[in-house]
Predict the 3D structure of the following.
Amino acid sequence: MFQCKNLFDNPNLKQIAADGNVKVFEYQRDLSVTPESAITAYYSSEMNLRKRQVLIELSGTPWVTQAGAMQWMGGNVQMGSGIKGVGDFLGKALSSKVTKESTSKPEYTGQGLLMLEPTYRHILLLHVEEWGGLVLEDGLFLACDGRIRQNVVARSNLSSAALGNEGLFNLCLTGSGLAVLESPVPMEELIVFELDNDVIKIDGNMAIAWSNSLQFTVERSSKSLIGSAVSGEGLVNVFRGSGKILMSPL
């Protein structure tokens, strides 16, 4: 039995979100400053540039994290590699090459607490089943329920994706459970599009996550080369079908 003091009762550490056994904490001020960094720390806090941490309360269900994300764990918690044999390792190694994700994502099981490393990025808590499979841009994945399956999906037209300076492959989460993501912008600024057999065209890689049910291609903004040149848009990301898109406006 261990005790964790100055965490839940820390006046500088505010719980800003919670879902199931996951809690998100935010440091209100950086108390470990020097005279040289005090001004930067003050204005960072005023502009919502604050450190945030994710605490996962393990109660039997395994959890998977990005490699290197664990800060500490307490209680009867065991960490595994998350790799189930040579074939699984080779498959994950290939996936890591095309998605820029780590080959091995540690899996934590048992009963206790798992605290992840502090980050200045914003934390998103999304239920994968509500998206019908969740496709992520590179660098967003932080952790997920261990029952969620991870695989790689490709663009529908790989040649156009390459011309549009977009990645050809993305990490896709399927199944049921909670996913914890690191976002460059807070949820309050993200736009959610819900498509019902419709089309959304986005200039640039502003979409950070979308339903796996959507067909994703990279196309010219106009049917003609002259039209694309006149509009100044060139290539755009096109999502077709039924599903949801999470887009950053900045």
Notes: The longest strand covers residues 235-247. The domain at 13-247 is CATH 3.60.160.10 (Double-stranded beta-helix). Residues 192 and 246 are 5 Å apart (CA to CA).
